[in-house]
Design a protein that fits this description.
Length: 190
Amino acid sequence: MKAPDSSKPPYVAKIEEIEAAGPRGANVKVKVRWYYRPEESIGGRRPFHGEKEVFLSDHQDVQSADTIECKCNVYSFRDYTKLAAVNPEDYFCRFEYKSITGSFVPDRIAVFCKCEMPYNPDDLMIQCEECSDWFHPACIGKTIKEAKKLENFTCEGCVAENGNGVKNENSHESTGESDEKQVQSKRRRR
């Protein structure tokens, strides 16, 4: 829906009901349930919030259908991370937001990496081949460029536990190519 201030992004709402009144249904109203952006919530935007993240709130309104700017898609978190391409009208929601209390449902989510942060689909993460845990490149002392080149990755915990002495292998440096699988990236393709 159109924001009153044109410099702000449009509002995102879920249409719950459509009502037509007046002669020949000329006055169309929509009952909506608003999605909040992280910066609109109590506590604001946090590092793990994705750029396209919204929260389904308990805030409802009735608006004129004329305020609808365009259709957008709000995906579940899981479906959003599987998109081959993210379009400007695509968003994702992993929380419901109680606007009066500022609380979230669920109130806890899984954390990853040594930094114990929830997953942000905008950030690259790599997976340990031993324990299947996910890590941010910076948290394992790698740049994003270096992390993208990794063919195999074993985290410090697994190296210490297994005592194999081989932490990370990068066959790009030695042969330029490899038949082995690439380290999986926990990042959606743009």
